[in-house]
C-alpha cells in the first residue's frame, strides 16, 4: 500500500515533501537567527522589577477603597471574567504554582485558565474533524473514539505538565546556585551591609550567572523596603521558590533579626549546609548510574560483544562440519 492512501484527498507525496522541506528550512533559519541574536536578560528583568517596585509603591500609598475595574480588550481576559474562573477556589493554588515557575503577573493566571479551558475543545475539535470529518485514516470507530478521548485528556493536562516542568527546572537552578549566593551574602554582611542591601547587591552580581536566584533575591530586597513587616517579605520568598533549603534560610534570617545573632555566621552555616546538600545529590546521582546503565549495556553492548567474540568460532565450526 502506498503512502498516498494515508493522505487526505487531493494531497500527493510531492506536496508533503515540499511542505516538510519548507518547514525544515524555516526551522533551520529560525535556529541560526536565534543563535546570532544577543539577548540581555538583565534589561527585561530590570523592567519587570521596576514594574513590581511601582506596584508595591502604589499598593502602599493608595487609599483603602475599592478600585474601579479597568476595561480591557483582551479576549482571554473577557472569557475568564465572564466565566468567573478567577473566583474559583483553585485560583490561589494556580497563582502559587505559576510563581514557582517564575510567572508572577495576573496575566499569567488568566492565560493559564484560558488555555486550560480552551485546549481540550480546540485539540479535541481538530481530532474529531480529522478522523470523522475528513476520514484521513482508515481506522475503526472504536480506535477513532479512543484517539479523540486521549487527545482531549492530554490537552486538558498539558498546561499543568508545562508548569510543573518549568517549576522543577527553576527550583533546580536555584538549588545549584544558592551556595554561591550565600557566600556572596556572607561577604556583604561582613562588610556591614544590611539584609535588603545585601540581597540587592548579590542579585546584581549574580544576574548573568544565576538569573533565577538573582530575580528572587532582588524581589525580596524590594519587598523588604516596601512591606510593613519584614518577615512577610521573607515568607514570600519561601512561598515563591517552594524549596526546603530556602525555607531554612528564611527561618535563619528571621531568627537572626529577632534575637540579634550575627547574620554572617548564620549565613556561613547555611552556605556549608547547602553545599553539602548539593554534593550529596551529586553523589546520589552517581550512585544510581550503574543501575541505570545495566539495561542499555545488556541491550546494546553485550550482543555485539558476543558476535565479535563468538562469531569467528561459530563460522569455523560450521565450515568444519560442512566439510565433514
UniProtKB/TrEMBL annotation:
<dbReference type="Pfam" id="PF00482">
    <property type="entry name" value="T2SSF"/>
</dbReference>
<keyword id="KW-1003">Cell membrane</keyword>
<feature type="domain" description="Type II secretion system protein GspF">
    <location>
        <begin position="182"/>
        <end position="310"/>
    </location>
</feature>
<keyword id="KW-0812">Transmembrane</keyword>
<feature type="transmembrane region" description="Helical">
    <location>
        <begin position="289"/>
        <end position="315"/>
    </location>
</feature>
<feature type="transmembrane region" description="Helical">
    <location>
        <begin position="16"/>
        <end position="37"/>
    </location>
</feature>
<keyword id="KW-0472">Membrane</keyword>
<feature type="transmembrane region" description="Helical">
    <location>
        <begin position="113"/>
        <end position="132"/>
    </location>
</feature>
<dbReference type="GO" id="GO:0005886">
    <property type="term" value="C:plasma membrane"/>
</dbReference>
<dbReference type="InterPro" id="IPR018076">
    <property type="entry name" value="T2SS_GspF_dom"/>
</dbReference>
<feature type="transmembrane region" description="Helical">
    <location>
        <begin position="144"/>
        <end position="163"/>
    </location>
</feature>
<keyword id="KW-1133">Transmembrane helix</keyword>
<protein>
    <submittedName>
        <fullName>Type II secretion system F family protein</fullName>
    </submittedName>
</protein>
Amino acid at each position: 500500500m502506498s503512502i498516498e492512501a494515508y493522505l487526505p484527498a487531493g494531497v500527493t507525496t510531492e506536496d508533503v515533501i515540499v511542505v516538510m522541506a519548507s518547514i525544515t528550512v524555516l526551522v533551520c533559519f529560525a535556529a541560526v537567527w536565534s543563535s546570532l541574536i544577543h539577548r540581555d536578560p538583565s534589561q527585561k528583568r530590570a523592567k519587570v522589577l521596576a514594574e513590581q517596585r511601582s506596584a508595591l509603591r502604589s499598593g502602599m500609598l493608595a487609599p483603602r477603597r475599592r478600585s474601579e475595574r479597568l476595561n480591557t480588550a483582551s479576549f482571554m481576559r473577557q472569557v475568564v471574567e465572564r466565566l468567573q474562573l478567577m473566583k474559583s477556589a483553585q485560583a490561589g493554588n494556580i497563582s502559587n504554582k505559576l510563581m514557582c515557575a517564575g510567572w508572577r503577573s495576573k496575566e499569567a493566571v488568566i492565560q493559564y485558565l484560558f488555555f486550560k479551558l480552551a485546549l481540550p475543545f480546540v485539540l479535541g475539535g481538530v481530532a474529531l474533524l480529522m478522523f470523522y470529518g475528513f476520514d484521513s485514516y482508515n481506522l475503526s470507530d472504536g480506535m477513532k473514539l479512543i484517539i479523540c478521548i486521549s487527545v482531549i485528556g492530554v490537552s486538558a493536562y498539558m498546561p499543568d505538565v508545562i508548569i510543573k516542568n518549568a517549576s522543577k527546572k527553576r527550583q533546580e537552578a536555584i538549588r545549584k546556585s544558592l551556595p554561591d549566593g550565600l557566600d556572596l551574602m556572607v561577604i556583604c554582611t561582613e562588610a556591614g551591609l544590611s539584609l535588603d542591601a545585601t540581597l540587592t547587591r548579590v542579585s546584581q552580581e549574580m544576574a548573568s550567572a544565576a538569573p533565577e536566584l538573582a530575580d528572587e533575591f532582588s524581589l525580596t530586597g524590594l519587598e523588604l523596603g516596601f512591606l510593613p513587616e519584614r518577615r512577610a517579605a521573607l515568607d514570600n520568598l519561601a512561598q515563591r521558590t517552594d524549596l526546603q533549603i530556602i525555607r531554612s534560610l528564611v527561618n535563619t534570617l528571621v531568627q537572626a533579626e529577632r534575637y540579634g545573632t550575627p547574620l554572617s555566621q548564620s549565613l556561613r552555616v547555611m552556605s556549608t549546609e547547602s553545599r553539602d546538600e548539593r554534593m550529596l545529590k551529586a553523589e546520589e546521582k552517581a550512585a544510581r548510574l550503574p543501575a541505570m546503565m545495566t539495561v542499555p549495556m545488556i541491550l546494546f553492548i553485550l550482543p555485539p560483544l558476543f558476535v565479535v567474540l563468538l562469531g569467528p568460532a561459530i563460522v569455523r565450526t560450521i565450515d568444519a562440519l560442512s566439510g565433514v
